[in-house]
Structures are given as structure tokens and as C-alpha cells.
Design goal:
Helices cover 57% and strands 0% of the residues. By secondary structure, the protein is mainly alpha-helical. This is DNA primase large subunit C-terminal domain-containing protein.
């Protein structure tokens, strides 16, 4: 690892090692619920401790206060995999979305999907974060999910 990359990647690798994020079958293991709190998210983003795909989604959400379904799934399951609790996840998404819409609209149209990702609604499947291979295979538009190394142009990658 290049010296300038070590500072950026060090905290992420350390956190992954502590949480045991690498599991058999190429699927990321889920961290203990509550391992990451709502208050931790801005620091994780500021330290560039998130993978570029998640950082891009997080920044898009923070600037536009909305993500399309695929982006919400990708980022939401990633945050769940880090250990963000269901209550914190609902507060996170509600906090961003209600900057651009009424709270009752969020509760009616979006909260169900957050609970569904945690296995609390629908068929009660406890979903896991997307693997890199699944993210790379997605054909999402830039800023709405997928792999930035595949979807971003050269200027966008340089700015990221």
C-alpha cells in the first residue's frame, strides 16, 4: 500500500479486522448490531473510511436528501452490515429524506423498506450487504449505486 493510501485505508482495514467482516463465500459478515451508531456516520465519511461506492452514495444522499431504490438498498445494507441498528437506520434515513419531504410521506413510502432490509417486514428475510461483485455487476447510473470505477467518468473519479 502506498504511504498516502495507508493513512486513508488504515482505519477501514483495522475496523474490518476487529469486526471480522470477511466471511466464507465472499459474503461480508454482519457486525454486531449497535457496533456503529448514527453519531459515527459523519466521522466514517469524513475519514474516508467507507469504500468509494458507499462514500459516493452517502455524499449524494447528503446533498440531494434522496437516493433511488438501488442506491438506498446498497447504502442501507452496507450500514446494516457495519452494525447500524434498525432504530438508528430509520433515524438516519428519516433525517435526510425529511429535509426534502414531509415526515408522513417518508413514513408511508420509505420506512417500510428500511424495516424490510432488517427482516422486520415482508417475508422477514435478514438481508446482507451486497458483495463487491454484485455492486460491480449493477448498471446503476452514476451517483445512484453501482461501482464508481465502472460508472464514473475520469473527472468524477478524480474528484472523488
Amino acid at each position: 500500500v502506498a504511504p498516502d493510501e495507508a493513512e486513508r485505508l488504515g482505519p477501514l482495514v483495522e475496523a474490518l479486522a476487529k469486526r471480522g467482516a470477511a466471511a466464507a463465500g465472499g459474503q461480508a459478515a454482519q457486525a454486531r448490531e449497535g457496533a456503529v451508531s448514527l453519531a459515527d456516520l459523519p466521522q466514517l465519511a469524513a475519514q474516508q473510511s467507507m469504500p468509494l461506492c458507499m462514500s459516493a452514495l452517502y455524499n449524494t444522499l447528503k446533498s440531494s436528501h434522496h437516493l433511488k431504490h438501488g442506491g438506498r438498498m446498497q447504502l442501507g445494507l452496507y450500514l446494516k452490515g457495519l452494525g447500524l441498528s434498525l432504530d438508528d437506520a430509520l433515524a438516519f434515513w428519516r433525517g435526510e429524506f425529511t429535509k426534502a419531504m414531509p415526515a408522513d410521506k417518508f413514513d408511508k413510502e420509505y420506512a417500510y423498506n428500511v424495516r424490510h432490509n432488517y427482516g422486520k417486514e415482508g417475508k422477514r428475510t435478514d438481508y446482507t450487504p451486497y458483495s463487491c461483485m454484485k455492486i460491480i455487476a449493477q448498471t446503476a447510473a452514476s451517483g445512484q449505486g453501482g461501482c464508481p470505477y465502472r460508472t464514473f467518468n475520469e473527472d468524477s473519479l478524480a474528484a472523488a
